[in-house]
Amino acid sequence: MTQGATRSQTPSGPQKKAGQAPALLLRDIDKAFDGKTALSGASFRLDWGEVHALVGENGAGKSTIMNVATGVYAPDHGEVIVDGRDVPLRSPVDAVAAGIGMVHQHFRLVGRFTVAENVALALGGIGRRIGIGKAAQLVKRKSAELGFALDPEARVERISVAEQQRAEIIKVLLLGAGIMILDEPTAVLTQQEAEALLSMARRLAQAGHAVVLITHKLQEVADHCDRITVMAQGRTVLDAAPMAQTSLAQVTRKAFGEVKEQEPVQPGTLGGELLRLENLRVRHGAVTLDGLNLSLRAGEILGIAGVGGNGQSELVACLNGLLRPLDGKIFLADEDLTAASPAKRRKAGLRVVPADRFDSALVRDMTLSENLALTGLESGRFGPWWGLSRRSMKRNAENSLKEFNVLGGGPETRASVLSGGNAQKVLLARELAAGTRVVVAHSPVRGLDLRSARAVLNLLVASARQGAACLLISEDLDEILRMCGSAAVLNRGRLSPPLSGADLNPARLGELMVGHA
Amino acid sequence: MLDGTLLIRRQAVPGWLGASCYAGGLCFGLGLSAILLVSMGISLENLYQEFVVQTFLTSQGLGQTVTATVPLILVGLGMSLAMRVRFWNIGIEGQLWCGAMAATWISIHDVGPEPLRLLLMMLAAMAAGAAWIGIGLALKLFWSVSEVISTLLLGSIAFFWVQHMLFGAWRDTVTGFATSPSFDPAERLVLLGWEQVHSGIWIALAAVVVCTWLTGVSRFGLLAKAIGANPRAARATGLPVIAAVSLFVLGSGALCGLAGAVIAAGTEYRLSQSIGAGYLFSGIVIAFLARANPLAVLAVAFVLGGITTAGGVLKVFYGISEAVVLLVQGLVLLSVLAAQLFADYRLTERKSG
């Protein structure tokens, strides 16, 4: 539709000015999934030339309404009006044709292809077949316009996450997107990279594009957005309010209910050393952990900051016993666990809460009572080997679900039905059960809304108060600063010495996170 | 018209819906098979006679069906056990051949005292089946070799081994045919006095009981469920994955080996080149249709036993290839699997505006 005109313009935007028909207008949208309401009378209005924040808890309907806008879901009811025209979006291809593009949290790029090849592939998908050379030219021109360098010949799997994101943005622009939806774009970036991205969003808006920024980070909203829409429970509770007249406190109240800023956690009393890593070296794929040393005491919450992909997952897998270190030692108290199996580590009191809770911790297709019983089978708590006691499994689940305040399911509910926050509580209920001495939590609140996040972090604090040692691996500096008395930074497989006291501040951590150690 | 409809994935599938979709698929598959057979020149009347009356409603027919069902139960259970831990045992026939060979070896060499001979034959068959699948299991555990490939190829190897024995050391010197010498009376499963039905039926029923206990009551059942649904989580959680997988997979091989011995000692009374044919396909069909549930295996195996019996009759009296049995099995399986779509998804009209 508008794509031909859009693309040929220089610098890069559709020639739209504020005051014309809105870029995107979603009106009175209902959407239910098999009876479960996701959107109910939701609306969204986006104008040309603005950066528009979309804020809300997980499950508030942000993703659903943007999926309606991009043709992924058909609304049960309601209108989608793009640039003043009623456009039936029957598929993502229709949305692309209408000039709507989305940069997802997980990029839609083929890792083994170069940037130019990815662009050519995407353009081919909408019927515009061009050669790789031509695609490379387009990428070069577009990246110059946007003010950064991106090698069109680079293989996507070889470049950094920030560069992959740029490749994705360029691809979406070249597909003719006048409307650009960015889904939590800064979640994977360092502070500096995030700043660069947000100013690029601003430049796009100035060039006449309309940009939607879905985010959890309210500071970004305050600093970089023109207007804000807040969603809660499938409804639009704050509709395109100008940022200048909106306070963050107001936004927080609308989006998350009454939530007070959380105080930093007061450190408890520290006991003796519980976990010690000595010169740990791990190699896995392209990642190498190089000589990690670490000491963790009872009652301590030690943070490991750093941008994902710098060895975090490998460290977790190594602590869990899924990845053998090349060299070095892992001690729990004085027990050498370097070569121990996951089961033996668990017995020794080492518990891991991995980042991908549904991939490597919980079993979607089993009930909560089964999931909660899995780790206790061997102890005989749930009956002898020849006869499981479903009754005691159920009782155990009832107690755990109550104690950890899990909502949205009972013992016989399948885990897949739970929301992220409740699933995480189930996992913690299992992992923080009796006998926990060391807890390794990897991004334990990623993807959770504020309320669940707080509940989960409080559970970790409580377990530290009871004498467990806790290793908190996270990309979120606020979380680290609030939770941890000291923190180290993992960057390119190397762990910095722990910072504490006045040294433990965002600037210092940020420096270590991007430094070329 | 389809343009105006949407598929909506259901959050939870109600039991009645799953059951009726299953039944619907079953009827559709059987109906399609009936149309096919009618088009091949068998009248509906005869079809009814052969597939219903002569296989299930007459004493003689029922006896034949039950006899055919016994090994089907065993291979169906075998496939089911492996499926539970996501191990694709495509070597059912290989394990079956090895089981039959082990039993024959005991018979030919008169191993052990005569009263215990039959028991020894069965135990040896189970051990042989387990050992044969054990090769595929070890290749998978230690070198991540796909079990689909390894068990399939081991199946062929086992068959060539059978041929090697039958055309060589074990050839029946009395008849000169490429079969083993016939088993002594003490080496045969006892006839129960109703058609050809033999005591192997008790073995099969016992296997159903053991498998029901293993998958539904014992601790290993829950372990297998976790491993089947999310092996990564099972490993990360420290569950005894290797032990549980080995137990189920070796059990699978043992049951298939046992099936071989039951056929040899129960109906053929010798090892021949034809006793194992078709069991791989049937085992897969049974396990899928029964959703790896041991009690359901019993029911499905019985129905397939009937189809097998009728298929034999069609071949003799109507000149229709026995492959038609495989065709019917395949049609029914595909229909039931396809009907699953209607349980998992809901069709709705796309509303606009």
Automatic annotation (TrEMBL), chain A:
Supply the Gene3D superfamilies for this chain. Answer: P-loop containing nucleotide triphosphate hydrolases (3.40.50.300)
Q: Where is the composition biased (Polar residues)?
A: 1-13
User: Which PROSITE patterns would you find in this protein's record?
Assistant: ABC_TRANSPORTER_1, ABC_TRANSPORTER_2
- Record organism: Roseibium aggregatum
Q: Where is the ABC transporter domain?
A: 24-258, 275-517
- Keyword annotations from UniProtKB, A to Z: ATP-binding, Nucleotide-binding
In terms of superkingdom, the source organism counts as: Bacteria
Protein's name according to its UniProt entry: ABC transporter ATP-binding protein
Disordered: region residues: 1-21
Q: Can you tell me which family this protein belongs to?
A: Belongs to the ABC transporter superfamily.
A single Gene Ontology MF term assigned here is:
ATP hydrolysis activity
Automatic annotation (TrEMBL), chain B:
Q: How does it sit in the bilayer? A: Multi-pass membrane protein
Heme: is it a keyword of this entry? no
- Where primarily located? membrane
Q: Which GO cellular component terms are attached? A: plasma membrane
CDD domains assigned to the protein according to its UniProt record, in alphabetical order: TM_PBP1_transp_TpRbsC_like
Query: What InterPro entries has UniProt attached to this entry?
Result: ABC_transp_permease
* Keywords, in A-Z order: Cell membrane, Membrane, Transmembrane, Transmembrane helix
Localization annotation: Cell membrane
Q: Output one GO MF annotation.
A: transmembrane transporter activity
Residues that span the membrane, as ranges:
21-42, 62-82, 94-112, 118-139, 151-170, 201-224, 236-265, 271-290, 297-318, 324-343
What is this protein's record name?
A: ABC transporter permease
